[in-house]
Amino acid sequence: MSKAVARGFTLIEILMVIALFAAGAVVLLQIFSMGLYGSVDNENTMIATALAQEKMEMMRNVPYASVLPEARAQVPNYTSFDREVLVATPVSNLKQVTVNIYWDGKAGDVKISLVTYVSNII
User: Fold this and answer.
1) Residues forming beta bridges with residue 63, ordered by sequence position
2) CB neighbours (10 Å) of residue 25?
3) Would strands 94-105 and 78-91 be described as parallel, antiparallel, or unpaired?
4) pLDDT under 70 in the chain at which residues?
5) What's the rounded Cα separation, in Å, for the pair 13 and 48?
6) Of 66, 105, 108, 111, which one is least surrounded by beta carbons within 10 A?
């Protein structure tokens, strides 16, 4: 008569499998968090671009004399974003308008700039 041999996993084998699964889970969670941060950064870039474009349209639709610079200040209804408008006059009857939008990113202050020209057609 032969004896039945009970085969199973040893404690060391089980601990090794748990350690491998834990290492894999940590790597997957890091990848997930980087993707999530990238998504938030892209969303902020899209919002900032839309805010800058909106201000550009406002500046294009006011009289030439009303195209004036604005100091950096918080954008109404968007507390995470600041806006600044710079106006330069490279030649007479022409204004260069630069709209800067700032927000806090992972590496610090992030800025998007859009530039347009407004002329005083006589």
Assistant:
1) none
2) 10
3) antiparallel
4) 1-6, 8, 35-38, 122
5) 53
6) 108
H/E run at residue 90: strand 78-91
The tokens describing 4, both together, are 């039945």
CA dist 45 and 110 (Å) reads 9
* CA-to-CA separations, 97 to 13, 39, 58, 62, 76, in angstroms, rounded: 68, 30, 11, 13, 20
Q: Which of 78, 80, 85, 68 is nearest to 105 (CA)?
A: 80
- 21-30 long-range CB contacts below 8 Å, 24 or more apart? none
Q: What is the total residue count of the chain?
A: 122
| Backbone torsions φ then ψ of 9, nearest 5 degrees | -95, 140
* Angle value at C-alpha 100, between 73 and 93, nearest 5 degrees: 105
Q: What is the pTM of this model?
A: 0.69
